[in-house]
Give the backbone structure.
Amino acid sequence: MSLQFLIELAGGVDNIVRILSPQGRVVVAVKDAQKVLPCPDSVQAESVLGEWQLSMPRVDISDEDLASLGRLIAKKQIASAQQHLQPTTCSYRPQWHISPPQGLLNDPNGFVYHNGEYYLFYQWYPYACEHKDKYWVLLKSRNLVNWNWQSIALTPSDWFDSHGVFSGHAVSHDGELLLFYTGNTRLGHDRQRQTMQCVARLSEDNTAEKLGPVIRTLPAGVTEHFRDPKILYRQNKWHMLLGAQTTDLQGRLAVYHSNDLMNWDFDSLYGDEIAPFGYMWECPDMFELNGDLFFVFGPQGIKSDNPKHTIEHQNRIYHVEQDSEGKIHFLEGWKLDAGFDFYAPQSMETEDGRRVMVGWMGLPDEVNQPSCDNGWIHQLTALRELKWENGKIVQTPICELAELRESVSSLELGISPVDAQTKSFELNVELPWGSALTLMSDDNYGVKLQLDTDKGVLRFDRSQTQIREGDVIRELPLDTDKAVHLQILADNSSLEVFINHGEHVMTGRVFTPESATQIILEGANVSAEFAPLKSVVESTFAPAV
Ligand code: FRU
């Protein structure tokens, strides 16, 4: 029985929305069950979680047969997602951060410098503010500030990724850009997860040619929560890092090695030294800063001592060491961002050798915020540079962001409100302990940054905003009694607060009305440096046709 036979039974290619290949079988899901022809006994037809699926034994059907059907499905998926490229008008939309035109954005992907340009992809579900079958969107930049829309680069069109082209990195190698990602599929009535690590090659026209899975099976001792490949070259071989969950529900780093980027051998799981540390580790990254090695990941299931901090999806950076046998040892770790919304970050090395990171300004599980009323949710963070200085991770906004300043002036802050006349600005200020700065405020709403002397914390309080889900208080202990320097980047519905020149960062989305542009300071008056920021958002969306 050929694939062609199954396609005809399914009512033709135009009626097929998904292909799957569970153990020894091929499954196609159809749009309209009425168009399915009467099936012989060898073909099983049934409704699986609301989707009509035809399944038959996979005999004499090659990967190439399935790939050609995948290419046809991809064409249809791109055409229908293209109907969702027009950005909706919304006062919460950032004017210099990357947000989706419609639907849901999550992790940054494939962040890399390649052939003279910066590439940045993001996870996208075009059709609703929901986490469903993910696509990759591609943007490019020459200066890390102006990002230009390129394409819908990958769609969930194939048997190995039909429930989502999940996160991954890109590798610039021999003049080509290879995209490594996790193909996510859900099989049968119990939505059994099947994950494979896959590769695609980006063509000149910014479409991606899928080369298929390079790791099809799991090593012993892990669950199907095995994803988010990061590729790096160290010790004369390619390494693939994956976020993993062990069968006893512990998060770990999994490492594979390869000489040619296509054939991969499992090395080991790492992270025992810091266990127990959550039930899953997502989105690994690894890089050197000043000759030392660091590992970044998203541990899930981390409880906090502070009762106001209830979200268990976190971000961490660990100082690690790789010994001469390639084994990775965990030394000391820190939070990368002590705010609300910083997850799944990726980093790359700039042309001039800086380590620059971008994260998802959002969190898993959270799908209802005021922007959903205008059909979109979540955004990427500002780009930050990471350094390792005197035993500390230091993070600062990339210097290129200064290009966004329209003008710089000094602003006298005090208890009488100052109208910033914009919600997209940079504010540099030195705050004494005991003072509280309220931003993006009007008579009813506002976001407060408070230096609480009694508790010795900087408190980021978004309780007086229009937020619908998520924590509203973050408290960062600060080990100093000196005035605290804040560099605040604001962009309509977000604040990124860089504390004491990058010793800490707190990122949060903050929803207040469009007209809430006042700034108030409780405590002694201080003078701040203020710069309204330009809008560069237009080029991040597809040109209207
Ligand atoms: C992190 C994550 C990744 C996964 C992707 C799916 O936010 O859960 O682990 O690949 O999102 O969109």
